[in-house]
Amino acid sequence: MSGYSPPSTVNSLSAEPVALWAAALTASTIAAVAWQLKSLTAPGAVAAALVGLALLSGTGWGGGIVLGTFFITSTAASRTFPWEKQSPTFGDSRRTAWQVAANGGAAAVGGLIGMAPAGLGWWIVTAALAGAAADTWATEVGKATGGTPRDLLTGEPVPPGTSGGVTTAGTLAGAGGATVIGLVAGAVTGWPALAVAGVVIGFGSMMADSVLGAAWQVRYACPACRAECEEPRHRCGAAAEYQRGIPWLNNDAVNAAATTIAASAGGLWWWLARVAF
Ligand SMILES: [Zn+2]
User: Fold this and answer.
1) 240 Cα–ligand 1 center, Å
2) Where are the domains of the chain?
3) Of 2, 276, 256, 269, nearest to 120 (Cα)?
4) CA–CA distance from 214 to each of 137, 249, 264, 267 (Å)?
5) What is the pTM of this model?
């Protein structure tokens, strides 16, 4: 099995890093448009521009295409399936800087590593974005298609939208998200092994996200509604009380941990392919 191709065979799209000025111009323009279209908050747009800058300058236009695929499909998923109608912020699906960092930070590190040594950055970028896409697609489609999610660890039914709760439709959608990112990355680099790594690691990252969410994510309870929630303020407006979980491990932190696990797995896969084959 020759899972790894040397970078000399990489497509020109992803062989050359984009010049810094062109990367900065492109990333900030797209982030500004996303902010205008209310896909990002202003700080979220700044964070997204930095992620784009790292990927374009490290992994070229190809990296930008993979990041764009993640961003466009994730935004489309949350707009196509506007689930939280009872939320006071309904209609505001803008991603915050924390959400951008949790989903794109690990990929940005891969962008900074870039092509040296020998394509390592690409494995990190693809794995991290495949994980982020899988989790986002699973969450949005899972909530929208309904059905009763079950806690991944206990098998108990949980309310829709609960971290660590999974449905069949959501899990299939997540697999679809990982597959799309893997295929796009494989296509722009010309590395079939990268596509395989993206699909496998993206799916694994989504599972890791659910395990972390089910086992250790912080939970609160609203005394007014007698409902469990994941934020210190319930959507009814009342302050919620701590119930269980690690106090600082909120949903963004779980996402950041899952994408970091994915990025690490991508780096490990790259290293194993080099030493083993
Ligand atoms: Zn409440």
Assistant:
1) 7
2) 7-276
3) 269
4) 18, 11, 22, 26
5) 0.90
